[in-house]
Design a protein that fits this description.
The chain has 20 helices and 16 strands. The protein has 516 residues and is an alpha/beta fold.
Length: 516
């Protein structure tokens, strides 16, 4: 850091995102599961309104280290404290204003550029000073935020910072003390030093005092976002610089000597902090309507569960219309590693599988997951096999294409991989589909990967060692889906007759209509 004596800043703080600097990079457009599990729409929703921070690569990057995941979880736990959250929200808002004041100043004239830089610098220095004071007694437990607090304490109390702060206030005070007279004639404007005449600014201000509140609001918005000056204002500023050379010399000196006034570590942490803020903002409306989120226990084994899980993308969509989302539980223990989901059409099977995959994705990023309690592991990757429409340029048949995609997945998975299979093998007959499905399950069992397999074939749910879960219906009205998926034996019922009866499309009804 410029101007800081060696050894003054002793705290080592590289990041509040990466505990060890290691990560696994995912392609920016996202792998298949980004689309299949609606993760793409979740990420789009999270980063909406945060375009200035380039957060997408962070949400597309699964940490390699479990310690990084726990490091992030610790910070989320600290942010559950409203006081801590408010401190960091205020810091973010102030830093946002600093950067807004700095944006576009390169296109301004010399003195205006220097003046805007001074105002931005003062706001930045005041923000750091306030942050140090606010964090001093904050109840922090996370390694990341405690290190940040220590860094800010050392930074704010360093000779370099105190010198910058004192100089900024002195230069601003000297400029603010300038008093001048201005005469506007038909064809020229005259500026000279104040000769003690009556200050008409005060006269005008008092005359319009009843409009003061609204005017202040308007002026505040203008000054925080509009750098523009008209030609008369520009010429007046140039004349003032001639009348008060010492004050403007100090302004120029401050600008030239402190162009890098924003500390690079502060800038980094400010950007990384938006990863946490954006996600908390995204889930806040869901928490307000009663949906639960939890910070999952991270396990090294494959005994996993999530109680009260739900599809985050679906919950966001339904909340905007005021509809409720159904929650479900899942649990695997011992040597269980495959859940086969059966049940009627439109019963919530695919939604359940998406919620399952999303839970592992969010947990692997160190984020709170939908649910009241969870234990999950950090997935090295998530693989999906959802039905895809045939492509005319693809000369392979649909079955061959399905099998090649599945083969590629099985060649890549490990014990720490998650696989979501959704109703594959629809292009072949039932006997072949069951035979191939059994073989796929056998290979996944052998790989010890975690898998959810959604299928219409109950035979796959009866394989030894497989956990059977069934999408339920309302027993009093079988045509109605409850969207609850529970652990139970497959029942072999598609409930097609109940739907046919609801819409009067049974064989007897159709025959009666034909005869009638």
């Amino acid at each position: 850091m410029k101007g800081v004596a060696p050894g003054v800043i002793w705290v080592v703080l590289k990041s509040i995102l990466w505990a060890d600097g290691e990560e696994v990079r995912i392609a920016a457009e996202g792998p298949d599961f980004f689309i299949d599990l609606n993760v793409a729409s979740i990420v789009d929703g999270i980063i909406s309104g945060y375009d200035d921070y380039n957060l997408r690569p962070i949400f597309h990057t699964i940490p390699k280290s479990v310690d990084t995941v726990i490091y992030r979880q610790e910070i989320f736990k600290d942010l559950q404290n409203p006081e801590v959250l408010e401190i960091l929200k205020n810091f973010s808002a102030s830093m946002r204003n600093v950067y807004r004041r700095l944006s576009g100043i390169e296109n301004l004239n010399e003195y205006q550029k220097q003046g805007w830089f001074l105002d931005a610098s003062l706001l930045y220095l005041e923000t750091m000073d306030d942050l140090e004071g606010n964090l001093k007694n904050a109840d922090l437990a996370s390694r990341g935020l405690k290190a940040f607090r220590d860094y800010i304490r050392e930074y704010v109390n360093s000779p370099s910072f105190r010198e910058d702060y004192a100089d900024a206030r002195r230069v601003k005070a000297n400029l603010s003390s300038i008093r001048y007279e201005l005469t506007i004639g038909p064809s020229k404007v005259t500026v000279w030093k104040d000769k003690g005449k009556e200050n008409y600014n005060e006269v005008v201000r008092q005359a319009f005092s009843k409009f003061r509140e609204d005017r202040m609001k308007t002026e505040k918005v203008r000054r925080s976002s509009d750098h523009s000056m008209n030609s008369v204002e520009t010429e007046v500023l140039i004349l003032l610089a001639r009348l008060f050379p010492e004050e403007f010399r100090e302004l120029r000196s401050f600008f030239e000597n402190r162009k890098d006034i924003i500390d690079p570590v502060v800038a980094l942490i400010y950007r990384e902090l938006q990863f946490y803020m954006s996600y908390l903002e995204y889930i806040s409306p869901l928490i307000k309507i009663g949906l639960e989120f939890c910070i999952p226990e991270i396990t090294s084994g494959n005994d996993v569960y999530c109680f009260g899980s739900f599809d985050l993308a679906l919950a966001q969509k339904k909340s905007s219309s005021g509809s409720a989302v159904v929650t479900n539980d899942f649990e695997l223990s011992g040597d269980e590693n495959i859940i086969v989901v059966t049940g009627p059409n439109n019963g919530g099977k695919t939604t359940f599988s998406r919620a399952f995959g999303q839970a592992f994705f969010l947990a692997s990023l160190g984020l709170p997951v939908p649910g009241r309690k969870a234990r999950l592991f950090v997935a090295d990757n998530i693989y999906t096999h959802f039905e895809k429409s045939e492509e005319p340029e693809n000369l392979r048949g649909k079955l061959e294409d399905d099998l090649m995609r599945m083969r590629k997945i099985l060649d890549s998975v490990t014990e720490k991989s998650v696989i979501i299979i959704n109703e594959m093998l629809g292009s072949t007959n039932s006997n072949d589909a069951i035979l191939i499905g059994k073989k796929i399950i056998e290979l996944i069992r052998r790989k010890k990967s975690i898998c959810v397999y959604v299928t219409f074939f109950d035979e796959l749910a009866r394989i030894q060692g497989v956990v059977s879960m069934v999408a339920q219906v309302d027993l009093s009205a079988p045509e109605l889906r409850t969207f609850k998926v529970t652990r139970s034996e497959p029942n072999g019922l598609a409930y097609a007759r109940a739907i046919a009866e609801k819409y009067r499309l049974t064989y007897d009804e159709i025959l009666r209509r034909i005869k009638g």
